[in-house]
Design the sequence.
DNA sequence: GCGCGGTGTGAGGAAGTCGTGAGGAATCGG
DNA sequence: CCGATTCCTCACGACTTCCTCACACCGCGC
């Protein structure tokens, strides 16, 4: 659920927006003046800010500048003023959109969706915890979470241990087929995925009996992700049926 | 210099926009119908699209949908229609902004700046540290950071020409294609960017199999930015998948 | 104990992908 | 017209990924 901060000094408009946004399943925070808006964003950064420029305490432009000093949260400006210079000033201060009052509520909702969509494409995806590793499916990335307390710092010589000695966030390298299998299993947490379904969805319907290859790649995944590949804890085998990701 | 594609069937408006945008040092492409717009974006993807919805051949909404199928280029819609339903339709189809005609040219310019800023600073700060170099995405500049040579004996025998030793302002020159690849990778730090996506977003959807060119330009980037181009540390290859910028 | 179906592991070669260099086309400015 | 720059294409060696085969292991029923 996305959270939206609405900043306006007219409590009637504030209530109307709150009702409309709640009806669309947004979480709504409100602020009545610029100072409250700045502290609200600092306390709990929202996903979108809807900002009326006609505030009683601070000039709305200064609120934009204050926010842009440290955050890129999308800002949609509401304003009763229609003159072009004011729009230019607000947009150049860092606002992302400008809507003049009176406005159509459906248009505002559409602009909020556009702002959220814009933000979503640049954000890293949700991460799945898998034992000592973190899997980020959209980024195609697996990183080790807790640095093993054991003496892993032994490999000092210049050997190219992939991901072991490079940086503080050691990454795990998976091959294309391993990624496809892992993604399919992780998309159904706790559920059994039949062998023939894995084969048809990854290799195509013509290879639905190539269980050898499947076992080969499952072994690769366990070797890279399981603490004890011989006794897997997350990528389990269901004999005669298929495989299961146990969260 | 940013390139803008303006799509409109009124040649008078087209000319006025071209003059105004050129005066602001934008590079301007034009198209007078939807088919020309789609092919123009596919041929040379611009940095922003300004799209009139009242086109003679294709419905403007379908142009938006066609573009959003493969690119995230910002789209600013121009339209003579003021009804809210139409705005909602365009924004939900994937447009980033909606301006009703007649519009104030200064407002349109400010919205173009907002779209470009959003793209340039959506996920990261202004300057990115990449080994011995600093990359400034908005300014399109790469400069050498520390005058000290690399930490691991970066001096390659007989090669000291690339702008580092000559002047007191050590800058690295990248070609336009190299810039696009680098910007796309750096905008998703740590994430894997598939070869297919690099090709479609930079060359257009018609060249989605030209991996030869991609390898050619990646080699150029590594030669200019990596201390040891044969063993890259920041621009990594994921065989069979794509490339990754490792911060 | 013994066969049996399904599974995990290792080694070999086939197939595909990547890095690099050279040659030539296209574009731009003078 | 020429030169410089950028880009694409082709070819070859090196590497990664993948499949196949063989064999050991485990639980099960007889």
Sequence:
């Amino acid at each position: 659920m996305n959270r939206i901060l609405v900043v306006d000094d007219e409590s009637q408009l504030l209530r109307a927006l709150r009702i409309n946004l709640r009806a669309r399943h947004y979480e709504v925070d409100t602020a009545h003046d610029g100072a409250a808006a700045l502290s609200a964003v600092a306390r709990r950064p929202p996903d979108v800010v809807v900002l009326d420029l006609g505030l009683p305490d601070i000039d709305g432009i200064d609120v934009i500048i204050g926010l842009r000093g440290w955050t890129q949260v999308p800002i949609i400006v509401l304003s009763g003023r229609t003159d072009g210079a004011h729009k230019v000033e607000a947009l150049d201060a860092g606002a992302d959109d400008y809507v003049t009052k009176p406005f159509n509520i459906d248009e505002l909702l559409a602009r909020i969706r556009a702002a959220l969509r814009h933000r979503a494409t640049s954000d890293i995806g949700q991460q799945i915890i898998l034992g000592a590793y973190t899997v980020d499916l959209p980024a195609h990335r697996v990183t080790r979470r807790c640095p093993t307390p054991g003496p892993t710092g032994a490999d000092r010589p210049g050997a190219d241990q992939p991901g072991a000695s490079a940086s503080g966030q050691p990454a795990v390298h998976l091959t294309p087929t391993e990624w496809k299998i892992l993604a399919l299993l992780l998309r159904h947490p706790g559920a059994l995925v039949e062998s023939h379904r894995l084969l048809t969805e990854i290799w195509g319907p013509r290879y639905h009996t190539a269980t050898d290859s499947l076992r080969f790649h499952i072994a690769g995944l366990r070797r890279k992700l399981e603490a004890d590949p011989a006794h897997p804890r997350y990528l389990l085998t269901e004999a005669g049926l298929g495989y299961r990701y146990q969260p």
About this structure: The helical segments of chain B are 11-23, 34-43, 60-68, 84-93, 105-120, 176-186, 195-202, 211-225. The longest strand of chain B covers residues 3-7.
